[in-house]
Each structure stands twice: as structure tokens, then as C-alpha cells.
Design brief:
With about 220 residues, the protein is an alpha+beta fold. It is about 25% helix and about 30% strand. It contains seven helices and twelve strands. The protein has helices at about 1-10, 10-25, 60-65, 130-140, 170-175, 180-185, 195; strands spanning about 30-35, 50, 70-80, 85-100, 105-115, 115, 130, 145, 155-165, 205, 215-220, 220-225. A hairpin with a 4-residue loop joins strand 4 (about 85-100) and strand 5 (about 105-115).
Length: about 220
């Protein structure tokens, strides 16, 4: 019976199914790669963090184009490797926010680390991107995190990425600090990250199946000198 049902499917439907399967296989699976520095000065250099495939999901892109900015919240932790329970030593968090401007037909993207705007590669704050592929290229570049190891300690880095879509009510505030207010944020006159991290306010709508999408990755265990 199973064989007869397969052969009754129209040829074009089979071709569409094959094409869809190939497209799914071609999409990179979301993943985080964490690499601890391998130099004599390991205690003075933070880890390299690279994320891939995080914006490849069709639902995420459709929500972006519908006007919902994507927020990628990263948390890098330094853990001491011990017998029994490991011990948390240090933590650094940062955000990447991506917004599609339907009127201009391009994308805005900003990265905030410790209340400071950190440009992507050689791009200046406020740079616009024409395609989602350009955005993806920037996001997937390795990023050196400013969380250094502890000398004479066996340890490792753990990175958690949470992807959420911002609610419509956040758009106005987001536009302010990705455009005209960026300069004051860089000068330290205001905190552009508070709108993203303030737990007392319900700023984020759970649009991705009612939950956050989370990725995690570890570096190898190493000894700092």
C-alpha cells in the first residue's frame, strides 16, 4: 500500500518535495563555536565566539520582514573546571539587534557590549545592509569577547545565545538608539542596553513558538599561564 501511494503522487509534487528537502539540507544548522586563545598570553586575551545559521530560519526572516526586530542576547561565562561541581568565575553579556526597514528596503544592525556600541568589523555605527546575507556575514564573523582567563587555573568558556523577536512597542525606542542617539550612547551619556535588559518591563513578545530559541557552546578546557 505504501508503494502505491507514493507512485500516485503527481510528478511535480515529488519534484517540489525534493527541492524543499535540498533547501533544508543547504541551510546551515544553528551552532556556536567557542575557541579559547592558544598563546602564551592566554590570561590577557578573551575567547573567540562564532555563531552560524542563527538567522537562516524561515520564520525568523518572515518576522524580520514583518517589522519585528531580532534580538540575539549572548552570555559568555568563564568556568573553573573542578572535581565535583565547576565554579563560575566571570560573566560578560552583549546584544545584537537586527531590524529590517521596509521603507528603505535595507537592514539596521547594532551590537551593544557593556553599554557601549561595538561596530561590526570595519563598519561604522549606523551602517545599513542591503540584504539579509550581508547581515548574516557580519553576525557570523568571529567576535573576540573581553572576558579574560584566570592565571594558574584549569578552566573553560561557556557561551549561551538566546534569540527573541522584539515587540512592536519597542520599535520607537530601538530606532532612537540605532540612529540619532547612537552618538550619546557611545559617549556614555545614556545606556542603550537598558531597554533590552530591564527585567521589570515586559519588552519582548514570545513569537517563536512561545519560547526563546537557545544555543550553547563550550571551549576546550585549558590552563591559563
Amino acid at each position: 500500500m505504501g508503494v502505491r501511494r507514493i507512485w500516485c503522487v503527481p510528478l511535480f509534487a515529488l519534484l517540489l518535495g525534493v527541492a524543499g528537502a535540498r533547501q533544508l539540507l543547504a541551510q546551515p544548522q544553528p551552532a556556536i563555536f567557542v575557541r579559547a586563545p592558544v598563546t602564551d598570553s592566554v590570561a590577557y586575551v578573551g575567547p573567540s565566539v562564532r555563531v552560524v545559521g542563527v538567522l537562516a530560519d524561515k520564520d525568523v526572516r518572515e518576522l524580520l520582514h514583518a517589522g519585528f526586530p531580532a534580538r540575539l542576547h549572548f552570555r559568555t561565562e568563564l568556568w573553573q573546571a573542578r572535581r565535583g561541581f565547576d565554579r563560575l568565575l566571570r560573566t560578560v553579556e552583549w546584544d545584537v539587534v537586527v531590524r529590517f526597514d521596509a521603507f528603505e528596503g535595507n537592514y539596521e544592525m547594532v551590537r551593544v557590549v557593556r553599554d557601549t556600541i561595538v561596530p561590526f568589523a570595519a563598519a561604522a555605527p549606523g551602517t545599513r545592509y542591503r540584504t539579509i546575507n550581508e547581515v548574516t556575514t557580519q553576525i557570523e564573523l568571529p567576535f573576540r569577547v573581553g572576558i579574560v582567563a584566570v592565571p594558574a587555573t584549569r578552566q573553560y568558556y561557556h557561551v549561551v545565545l538566546e534569540l527573541e523577536m522584539l515587540s512592536v512597542s519597542d520599535l520607537d525606542e530601538l530606532r532612537r538608539w540605532v540612529s540619532g542617539d547612537l552618538s550619546s550612547a557611545v559617549r556614555g551619556q545614556r545606556n542603550p542596553g537598558t531597554a533590552l535588559s530591564r527585567g521589570a518591563r515586559t519588552l519582548l513578545s514570545r513569537l517563536l513558538g512561545g519560547e526563546r530559541r537557545t544555543l550553547e557552546g563550550n571551549s576546550a578546557v585549558f590552563d591559563a599561564r
